[in-house]
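This follows on from our talk about sequence and fold. Can you supply me with one protein entry, sequence and fold together? Could you add the entry underneath, on a fresh line?
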Amino acid sequence: MVRLHVKRGDESQFLLEAAGGARLADLAPLVARIYNGRLKVQRLCSEMEELAEHGVFLPYNMQGLTDEQIEELKLKDEWAEKCVPSGGSVFKKDEIGRRNGHAPNEKMQQVIKKTIEEAKALISKKQVQANVCVNMEMVKDALDQLRGAVMIVYPMGLPPHDPVRMEFEDKEDLSGTHAGLEVIEESEAQLWWAGKELKETKLLSDYVGKNEKTTIIVKIQKKGQGAPGREPLISHEEQKQMMLYYYRKQEELKKLEEDDDDSFLNAEWADNHALKRQFHGVKDIKWGPR
């Protein structure tokens, strides 16, 4: 299996194994599917952290309003009584005003937070350093874990307008957001390797040869964006290490120069003839006019 090190720009995303005979028309959408799936997990984890801290999402017409404004406008959250966390709630006001403040108790919060950590670890970029390949099954497993945690804490479900529920039902609206710009539609996905576009009409082996143990760096882009920037000769981390090495070397040279300084020879205690002059009574004689 050919190992693909998938990057977006200069940032590593994940490792993926594919057969050398894989059609690029199928491979590019698969890479985009995994890439988008990881983004979905990350968005869910972010919203579930808020869910654990401040409870369910308020209706859109109540968000950002003070308690006085809500009372004055006679607005009511119909879902507050329906979507009660298991084991009761603890009030923790959401300063942003997006959630109702009725958070799960400490035990249920830990259920959500622990699941978030496990899901993040499954699709983490650190898997690249650990040499672990990510596939669509792992992404689905992470999503299932998150869904299971929400069902445990909120057995009655979440409001239909809650971002967590909308993500699970694939109804999220990312238009006009930074998260929406990160998503790459499968039909728009394009892979690049060594400055070359991997054309959908060809096989992976047409570019990398028949060696199934090859590892290549591919970059995913949207069609029409042109060729991505080339890989730097040295990584940012390697550059930092080199600068640190030369800085330490420079400091060592400075210390050596200080050690070679012989100005101390002019000091009185370093004079070899001081004792002799003292016996002759010619110590501290100064020559010159009075």
Summary: The first strand starts at residue 2 and ends at 8. The first helix runs from residue 24 to 54. The mean pLDDT is 88.
